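Continued from yesterday's entry.
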Amino acid sequence: MPSVDGGALEPPERQLLKQIAYWTETMDAAVRQLAPNLICSYAFELSLLFNNFYGACPILKGPADRVELRVWLTWKFRETLGKALDVLGLPAPERM
């Protein structure tokens, strides 16, 4: 992860990062409770937060000191959503 002061994050960046961090916890809970709906809800919320982030925070055209973080967040979103979809047996799109 790129180095950044947590207080310097924009709210959409912070919300997306927090949701990405909950992936392991959500997966563990879904397995313990035999509740795949938890993964569906997680993936839906992750997608909503990414959409909010994408609309509010220019990724490549943003401030130079934010580009690396925003590209990394985009990559982590794609990776995490891909894992969730894979667990659910759904294909992940190659491009959006």
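--- second protein ---
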Amino acid sequence: MNMKRYGFLFALPLALLVGCGEETEPASSTAPTEQVEDVKETEAEEQEEAVTTEDAEVYDSEIGTNTIHMKNTELTMNETMGSVKFNVNKVQTSRLNVAEEYLDMFDGKDEVTLVVVNVTAENTVDDTIHFYPDQGTLVTNTGEQIDADLWFSDDVGGDFLGKVKKEGNVMFMADAMPEELTEVRFIVGGPTNTDYEKLAEESYEYKIDVTK
């Protein structure tokens, strides 16, 4: 992994996922101090510049311009999967106009629709389990079936070594425009033990309304 690519990962959540969390003043967000020098020149350059219009929030960064279409920060989709408590907390859709220098990171597309699902996963026992919500699948009302983008999603899956709790964003890139999306189905596989034996159902599906 080269240094520039590594630094890009730190910067991305600020550019794409801001607004998916609690309500804050967008312009006050700053990038983490761990940014590598390859992408960090000054702290001010890594702050997001946001413009709120009557219809949308628009966030500008070095990655591009991200226009928020809708967000719901009050989803209450809770599930018990064996020893795992799993919650789907928030959803956001937006349209990203990709800056030219980052086209390769988005398969050459100059525009993409982003669907971000915020989840919490907690293992309630001392035993180690495997659970991968960050490898979930999204099915849209427009007929797209999309695998989660591990590159841009937070680390909310993998091995849970005992009583571990993880929270973060799972990101999907869709071709349809945000306004074409009315409902998405978020599908995740159930947890297993260290012998890969099922601890609950094989998979779980959550229907999420993404109309504005």
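The chain has a mean pLDDT of 81. Residues 3-16 form the longest helix (14 residues). Will compare against the first tomorrow.
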